[in-house]
Here is the input.
Amino acid sequence: MRTCNRFGIWFIGARGNVATTTLVGAYALGRGLYPPTGMVTALPEFADQRWPAWDEVPFGGWDVAGTRLQQQAQAIATAAGTLRPEILAGAAAWLDDCDREIRPGTTTGCGDRIREVAGTGHALPTPLAPLIETLQKDLRSFQERHGLDTVVVINLASTEPPPPPQFVGEDLDQLRAAIRRNAAAGLPASVIYAYAAIDAGFPYVNFTPSTGSSGLALRQLAELRGVPHYGNDGKTGETLVKSVLAPLFAMRNLRVLTWQGYNMLGNQDGRVLDDPANKSSKVRSKDHLLPKILGYSPHTHVGIDYVPSLDDWKTAWDLIHFEGFLGTRMTLQFTWQGCDSILAAPLVLDLARLAALAAQRGECGPLTHMASFFKSPMGCTDHDLYSQFARLQRYLAQVATGNEEETPATPPPSFAAEEEGRERH
Ligand SMILES: NC(=O)c1ccc[n+]([C@@H]2O[C@H](COP(=O)([O-])OP(=O)(O)OC[C@H]3O[C@@H](n4cnc5c(N)ncnc54)[C@H](O)[C@@H]3O)[C@@H](O)[C@H]2O)c1
Here is the structure.
């Protein structure tokens, strides 16, 4: 049995639906109120790994909204019906403890919709160098207060628009110079947070489609500091199903002509994604895997519509029009009705465990064995769930024998190269 060191979890977007559901989930798991259904690290593959109990893992984070966690949890319970009243009653003190660990964040480079949703009063001022220092101080004092071996920083904040064309995230020296001169206009908040975490030596995971640590500059920083990191954009619903169904068409040599997908979601995530700039980040993340799995580009469309009354529930309807033997055309349709935060929360806990384990093993750079958790897995060309999961199994076999993770034969592509690849499809 191998034991994972003591870690804490620090959320960016700590008062959001996914973060709050994860906190309530960790409370329930820590007290044995529910089995760990939906958690990958609870599968038999991980039977030899001992993790800290969830009631021993402290949580903190940054947010730009002031809503109390109890209030947010209550709102989720009322609107989505997923958090049971008896659990919330028991979790009240725990949520207050977590609340005390939440610090103000920054809305720089997040776009108007996020600033509007967040309101004012909980965002830090922007001269970049002192801002990054403040964020790093928050992390270090959390680590010290709780006597932790490490703190896993996980981005669960609202989706930002794509970075501006003059994005300075492709060269570490330029990025550092721009931070020093406070000249990185439009540098997205997700990059600032990722920079703060990685530069201070903390593992970083990006569950959102925002840029985070995917630019070359932050990848260089992670190598330099010996820090593991990964992302982008948790694969929890329609794209998860796509990454399972698309290999079927590839393996049977059935030609996909059209893959048309419509997503309807409520909640604040849906409201933010209703802004065309923020939506474009998500659409790109959901749409680029098909050509990579199929080897050609069928006609595709990903629609995302905000339907307020659905709240935390999401409906995806996909129509796949395909061609078989003798040119015969056929159709597959599926409807996915999932609760966004309930699908995401167990994976967030998994990612925290895996990132803490990687940090303990001295791994650094992109954690490609975590590809199966993401829609746009950094530096990984496998997009079907089966080969991605096989990667995780191979990694676990290496952990079991004490071997280091395989180094990829080719270095992971830069953010710009990945973006260019996506544009081509
Ligand atoms: N199944 C899923 O729910 C799922 C899957 C993949 C990705 N995601 C992504 O996870 C993120 C969180 O989803 P959610 O439903 O919890 O959204 P949410 O809107 O409920 O929560 C987002 C939180 O982030 C905060 N925030 C926004 N900008 C911030 C900033 N710059 N700094 C600090 N905090 C900031 C908001 O105040 C809010 O509390 C979104 O980006 C979403 O696209 C979710």
